[in-house]
Amino acid sequence: MKIAIPVDEKSLESNVCISFGRAPYFLIYNTNTRESTFLDNSAAESTGGAGIKAAQILVDNKVSILLTPRCGENAANVLKTADVEIYKTQGDSIKKNIHDFISGKLPLLDEIHPGFHGHGRN
Amino acid sequence: MRIAVLSGKGGTGKTLVSVNLAAAAKRCTYIDCDVEEPNGYLFFKPKDVTEEEIPVKIPKVDGTLCNGCRKCVDFCKYNALAYIKDKPIIFEDICHSCGGCILLCPEKALTEKEKVIGKVQKGTSDQVTVYTGILNPGEPSGIPIIKKLLEENIPEIKKTTFIDCPPGSACIVMESIKDADYCILVAEPTLFGVHNLNMVYELVKLFNKPFGVILNKCLDGENPSEKFCLEKNIRIIGRIPFDNELGKLNSKAEIAVRKSERYRTIFSSLLETVEKEVHHETTSDS
Ligand code: SF4
Ligand code: SF4
To answer: Model ipTM?
Structure first.
């Protein structure tokens, strides 16, 4: 089973990124092999729909669990359609969140924020 | 002739200026292109209003035809498509109706369907024809509504059209001023006002439009926006004083020109200046 977490840097010591769609990288942790790999999030630079594209990247990489502090409505729809479960991270530590998830301590992410699709009004 | 009224942000008096100029011009057309928050109609209270819905075309998918090539998903630069469980899903609130994916699909699995994104209202207020564009909340782009508003109004030579633009300088504003003969930039007398003025100033320069600035909310003392105009050699076509009477009329959604002799005079002379400017521009162009 593969777990994904949005992260600030390509290091297990770095932090959970506060954004999902705009995170620079995703850590992919494979619970069977206990391997960690980092995935560039090419969606981060998109002008719109970054969350959708980021979700697509995770689905294409056969991720089945996402740990994230927040997630937009559209991205959540992509993930749910693909049967990816979304859990809410607690605190910044990547390792602790993975550990907590495995021991069943992370809650499901229930608040999904509606997308902001502003077009430079201000 | 078409006169566009712009400002870098909302609340600077853009609607006040366009509504009152239109009221002073009497027989003219006023078009509210601020489709996310149209408010000109609140002042004009137009009668005999007719309404037309504005649809756009968005893709719909026939999953049985899709071969999974993902060309559509890769193409959509708005990321309005995702490919999940062997077929594309379409995010209608993100789709900008460019039509690209439909053209591109090798299996013709994508076809057009219509979606209403808002409406255009037309009515009259005294001799002013009032058009209002209204974008439904959550829609990604008001540009189809602006296009409709402006293409319906092939300007009559003798009739003036005032275009109340959306605030800012994004593509929707560009669409609004594209065919304007003259642009009026409305500026507030603050440092923040200068920043906003600069935004629209850059835009009209880019479009090579003749333009002038109206300084709104003028008080005695320093006016940073005025200073900016002098530095950049920008034509100031008028000043609107800050006073309670105007504020009160405005907050009651009354048109100052129709209520007060004083403001009738101020806006009529502003209008004259604008007309002279436009005339000057068109003759010096030829
Ligand atoms: S382009 Fe057509 S065939 Fe290819 S994935 Fe999209 S819908 Fe399916
Ligand atoms: S019509 Fe254009 S914006 Fe809409 S989904 Fe297709 S490619 Fe994307």
So the answer is: 0.80
